[in-house]
Here is the input.
Amino acid sequence: MPTPAVYVGPEDNPLLTEAVERGGGKVVALAEAEAVVVSGGHGELPDLHDGVRWVQLPSAGIESWVASGALDEDRTWTSAAGAYSTSVAEGAVALLLAGIRGIGRAARARTWDGAALDGVQGTLRGSTIAIVGAGGIGRAMIPAFTGLGARVLAVTRRGLPVEGAYETWAADRVGEVFAVADHVVLAAPATAQTAALVGAAELAALGSQGWLVNIARGSLVDTDALVEALRAGTIAGAALDVTDPEPLPDGHPLWTEPRAIVTPHSTNPSTLRLPLLADRVAENVRRFGAGEELLGLVDLSQGY
Amino acid sequence: MPTPAVYVGPEDNPLLTEAVERGGGKVVALAEAEAVVVSGGHGELPDLHDGVRWVQLPSAGIESWVASGALDEDRTWTSAAGAYSTSVAEGAVALLLAGIRGIGRAARARTWDGAALDGVQGTLRGSTIAIVGAGGIGRAMIPAFTGLGARVLAVTRRGLPVEGAYETWAADRVGEVFAVADHVVLAAPATAQTAALVGAAELAALGSQGWLVNIARGSLVDTDALVEALRAGTIAGAALDVTDPEPLPDGHPLWTEPRAIVTPHSTNPSTLRLPLLADRVAENVRRFGAGEELLGLVDLSQGY
Here is the structure.
């Protein structure tokens, strides 16, 4: 088995250096490198010579690298796509549980009111949770939800079976899930098909015991319809890591809505990203050395 | 199989009536009853004639019924002990997740600050969570924690293996868990042995990334030591459903401590209790009819 010669840069990063070695590689100067692990930046790359056959980018989304024109057809590119799924999924589970168990309300209290949470708490046990967009992130939520006694209805583009879900529906039936599920978690990409996917009708179908969680993109939800549904009690609550507009402006009604929890697009914080990136780097260096297919391969024709 | 004749009272309760029928019983007047399902109250019972062979009480703790002298040796008594475990366990999981993912802080924010949660978020994935007092409630947390990629170190009185825990320790080693575990969940009864179990030394051992969750009794934690540890950043945070003193007085430093989340002894809210009680009633009526051992048997000599 050859030992991959890998450059880590432009910034020194001990965790990524260690990851290269963990994957069976050795860390070398750029001039000697056959592979490059990009350790930071937003679109800038080290100068790549012809000997560099593979470049590992540090982010899951690579829009900025594509936009900068840095990606060429001369070598293999990998992103960190999927590497952060478990972290974002944990954040989504935390948001739904915090919502349904009244922890958002409790965190704002400054006095002991034993009855305050009595009427507003529900339980995930025995409930049906729809995960709209059961890709890597959505799928990573399933063991936690089933461990809490809920069952998962997955919605994917094509509707092929998703492990751990009791049923998987194709995206063309997504409008129906709001009436079937007790709670809905949005984890789908922002596309023309998902824009304003959740409006007044979907919220009415979700119902007064239902929670909506959005960790995808703000554009999936009609914010005005959501504000009205929360005010009226049409749904039990909403926990949002993404909003439209984003950032959510000061004074927006969602900041003071008792049924809402807002986190500032923080389900994938940098403190959790780096260890996960290091694991991905170690695995990809191992695969590179073994001649196996790399994780997170970039399709330049698709731009991701 | 005989059909148990069951009285539900003193209050009418459709959910409990339905549960009796679901368990294969029929609901009758008190005079014709061989079993009684107590539907409410705090220590008051219907007048029991000699034909009543079994009484199901509605609460898990039965101190008030024992204190009122209502429980006699003439028949079998069952409490709801264990029936609410899953609900309380879900609340504990919600508290730990909300803490470690910064949701308590986010819920208090009134402005979008993407960096605010960056340094404070951790993850349960790959962590070791000690459950101190792995009885029914503690054990019910294990599938959720393992589903989130954590492993559980259980502490029980005798240290017999607990399913799903990677290790179980006996209570005499409980002092060591704070150094071994990343996070600690207190779910043990309040006894002389557990009073002030968590003090300054245990919090120091837990460390600056560790969360403490208390859903047991406030007396297990030295509150002054906890306030100091939170202020100093000795631990990452504390999520408390029970406090000492309880109720926590207005103006107490825990109300405004950024690292703390306080819920008002609300992990077992009445809205969630009744459906779980109904399930217990249905199961016990079935067992009564089949001559099987009932769940939640009261030991009058022990008082629980």
Q: What stands out?
A: The two ends of chain A are 30 Å apart (CA to CA).
